[in-house]
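Consider this pair:
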Amino acid sequence: MTDTFLLTLTPRQLPALRGWRATPALLAYRLGLGPHLLRAEGAVPPRGALMVVGDQGYDGLGQAGPLCQELLGECRNRGLAGAVLDFDRRLPPLEAACARLDGLFARHGLALYVPEGYAPAAPHGRVMIPSALSGGSLELRLEEAGERYGPERLVLALELRREDFPLPSPSGGGRPLSREELEGMRRRLSPSVFFSRELCARYFTYMDGEGAPHFVLFDDGDTLARKAEVARRAGVRTFLAPWTQVAPFAGRLGIPRLQAPEAGGRRR
């Protein structure tokens, strides 16, 4: 079986994807009030690309019907292959839109990718599972999701995560770290770094200035490649990832290159 890579990027970044066999997922759309679909000015998606639709700026009001027709029309008029619903919130109008889009897109042969929280509303859609965990096991996470939805419906959403967790961490969440912050901590603390087979991530611990323990969990190209391998063993062969994060590791992740035309070939 072959892998499918869906790479999120802005319209300006599209030239960087030339030479790679991957589907661009365009970061050029969001929901506005109404709700209505808003597209970045001047964005011309290539045919066969996906649209990524964020919910930033949406106030949670309005009817789903007009929005669904706008999404369908955008896909059909511009030759898009479908939509990635990048919804961070669970809102009734968005659930209604997801359910209606599921049927509309299925009838028109379009792909729909939804967060796991919206999976019950989209039985025909592909379900995105985040690669980053703060506990448990990625292998078990994918196995359980595969039993619930079917592995062929799953998409592993790869992401370079860097987080600093206080211990204990009642919320299960940590403070996001920039690459520069993480590198600075490693230079300053010189910690012993370990690899978690369950999380497929690297980690180290340290004590802050007040004597409180911390747990730092982070990804790199190697951990992303290992997460992709865990997914493949679970029958998951579709991956969604931000191009800016994975570009340095594209070959290691298994993103195939397009074959260059043979030198001296005849032009038509």
Notes: The radius of gyration is 20 Å.
